[in-house]
Each structure stands twice: as structure tokens, then as C-alpha cells.
Amino acid sequence: MYAILDIETTGGKYNEEGITEIAIYKHDGHEVVDKFVSLINPERAIQPFVVNLTGINNDMLRTAPKFYEVAKRIVEITSDCVLVAHNANFDYRILRTEFSRLGYEFNRKSICTVEVSKKLIPGMPSYSLGKLMHNLGIPISKRHRAEGDAAATTKLFEILLHKDVQKSILHKSLRENPKRHLDNKLIRLMDNLPSSTGVYYFHNSKGTIIYIGKSNNIKTRVNQHFTSETSKARQIQKEVEVITFELTGNELFALLKENQAIKTHQPKYNRALKRNSNLSKQVFSHALYSFKDENGYICLKILPADFDKQPITTFTNLAQAKRILQNITDNHNLCQKLNGLHKTQGGCFNFSIEKCGGACLKKELPESYNLRVEEVIRKYSFPGGNLLVINKGRKTGEKSVLWIENGCFRGMGYCDLNHQINNREILEKIIDPMENNKDARHIIQSFLRQNGHAKIVDLQLPYAEKWSS
């Protein structure tokens, strides 16, 4: 029996993808005897290029079942079957990853129709599924959707079955990944880990921290480390002897604590932040700056981050920077031409749809235009003055408190009572001082820009007003 499948995913980092759609055709070597097709809610965002490729978007998946809700059906329909897929390593890895997140070890033999096609149908100009089917004269519908691609793979596989008269190549193409069992040490290390938000630390036999990470679910994330096949993960699995953790209650605090801990301890397996705290190149690559042109208009421009200049805000990558600048330009009726988003000799596109007042053609005076740009600068710059960012804590009734004083990040802590943050002396005691480095400022700024669930308390206002506002 064969389980011929195709999987569509969210895209993203290796082993962090989620399934958005799955199709499985159960085949007895002669015909399809069972079928399972379903959209899947991946509980994470789909990468834009994947949306363009598949047509599957986040809205389509809001009411779709989550993977754990269909996992039993997948186990049943693939039971006693050999998995068949076009580029089987990808589909099999994604499926095993999803099951490992549930704590279940999914193992099946597998056949890759790309490999078998190269042996049984040599000399084809391309072995991609679409081109291969086209060159074989077989129509394919619903391309880049799981059901369509699985149906096409089924047709291809039937051709291969017929071509392999002796069945020798198919037997040689079987792949059976060895079962990965967590050894007793790794199982013991995971026993007391929480399924909560926080920072975790891997220590070696000497107590030295060798890796630091953060997660909204520490236990699940550590399990991913322990079931990963990468060389780095395998080395960590060998060396780790103790795992400690620190709950933070929210992702902002987890990010800030991870950032500072990596800079402090310099773990050998953390490379992204293992640098001098003044160098933030790995955390954010681009920044937004402002300047006046020869006509007096304030222009916004994305440039590679320059640590000697004070940016308005910072971005993790260029794509994020362009997306946010476009949103800023649209939401504040700014000029795409002045902001470097539309290269033209005439008016920008926003002017043609009446979303720009005509600064690109000098139809709007710099004085009125610049007022909106200055509003943007105030809104998106790292917050100045004295304020607190109040978020959820680690337990019911507790609040987390992040303190910014005179525009500098002072530190963060937790409180149970409102008066603890109204009294400066008490506030200084409950706050853990932290370094006001560019990485920390970027993390806070990004969080505030995304308008998280935190409450902003202006310390200049009377207490009753600031807590009820």
C-alpha cells in the first residue's frame, strides 16, 4: 500500500514551517482506495510569497482544523503504507516535524518520485512536477495546491509502477529513516520544563551556558532542539547536561532577557547576538532616517543601519522596512516620491489616487506637509520622556513593568500592586537594571510599533489619570 501525498506550508525558517494544506491518496498499487484532503490552521502567519504561489491566505485558514485535530486521521490513512511524494524529503520532514511537536514519533518508509523518475524516465529536460507532467502529456489542475499536486503525483506514480516491470528500482528507492528516540538524559532534562513563555539555558557538564533561547512554549521549543537532525542540534544534544529556565510572562520580556543574557554569557552555540553590545547588525539591518530636501520638504529614507546616527526606528530586514514605510506613507498621506518609494519625474502614485497632497509637484507647501512627517517621527521614534510599559506578568494578578526614564531604557521587573510603580523608591527596587543598548531599544521599539497588548503609563501624569487612561 502507498500513501501518495502533497503538503503546502507557510514557508519560513527551516523546521519552523507549518502545514497549511495536506492531501493524501491511499493507493493499493492499482487504484486509489482512500483519500484525505484538508486545509490546516498552522497557527502562524503565511509568508507573502507562499500566498502568491498557492493562493492560500491566513483568512482561509482561521476556521480550518489545527494539525492535532487531523493527526489521528493522517496516522490511520498512512498506516502500513509507504509514503510517496515528489521531493519526498521535504514532505516527510514537514510531517515528522508536526508530529514531533505533538510528542509523537512518525516513521514511514518513503519513495521520492523525483529520484525514481530520473531512473525510469531518463533524459527529461526537467523533473519538476509541472514540467514533467507537461512533457508526459498529462494535464494537471490546481497547481501548487495539495489536492492537485497529490493527484498529479498519483498519476506519475502509476506510470512509474508500470515502467518498473521488475520492481527493482522502486525497492531500491525505499527510504526508511531510523527512529529517533530521545535518550534517557534528554527525557530527564525535559521532565520539569514548563509550557510557558520565557528564556531557557542549556548548560554543559561544567555548568557553562552553551546555548540560550526564548519561546512562548519552552517545553515544545526544547523538544524541537532534541529532535532536530541538524549538526548543531546534535552537538547540543551531546553536550547539554542541565537546563534552567526563567519565566517572563510575555514575549517582550523574553526577547529582552534573551538579548542581554546572550551578550553577557557569550554562549558558543549562539551566533546571532554573540557580539559586543554596541554592534547590532544581526538584530536589525536597516533603519529609517529623515532629511530635508532642497525645497524644504522632510523626506523619510530607508538606509543600512548606521550606529553613529540616531534613527527614527529600526527594522529587522529591508523587506520589513519597505513594508512599514509604505504603510506609514499611506496612513499619513505622505508622498511616495519624497520617501523614495516611487521613482518618477512627475507626481507619485498616491497623488493620482488623492492620498498625497502633491508635495511631489510642490502643490502642497512644505510647512503643512512637514507637520504630518513630524507626527510620524514622534510616533515611531524610541519613546522619550518618562514612562512605564505595563504588560501581563508570570501569574494571575502580577504585572510586568518596563521603565523608560529620560528616553533611556532603565530595566524591567514585576509588581502585584499599583502603588509599587507609583513610588519611585519602590520602582527602583523592583526593576532589574538593564543595558540601554541599540538591540534592546530595537526590541522595545518594534514591540511598541506593533501596538502590543501593553498599557503605556506616562509618569508625568497624576497617578489616578495615568492608571485609568
Which CATH first-tier class of the largest domain would you pick? Answer: Alpha Beta
Instruction: Give the number of DSSP strands.
Output: 17
How many discrete structural domains?
Answer: 4
Reported CATH architecture of the largest domain: 2-Layer Sandwich
SSE layout and pairings?
Layout: E1 2-9, E2 19-27, E3 32-39, H1 48-54, H2 58-61, H3 67-78, E4 82-85, H4 88-101, E5 109-112, H5 113-120, H6 129-135, H7 146-163, H8 168-172, E6 175-176, H9 184-190, E7 198-203, E8 209-215, H10 218-227, H11 231-239, E9 242-247, H12 251-265, E10 286-292, E11 298-304, E12 313-315, H13 318-331, H14 349-352, H15 366-380, E13 387-392, E14 399-405, E15 408-415, H16 419-422, H17 424-430, E16 431-433, H18 438-449, E17 455-458, H19 463-468
Parallel strand pairs: 1-4, 4-5
Antiparallel strand pairs: 1-2, 2-3, 5-6, 7-8, 7-9, 10-11, 10-12, 13-14, 13-17, 14-15, 15-16
Helix pairs in contact: 5-7, 12-18
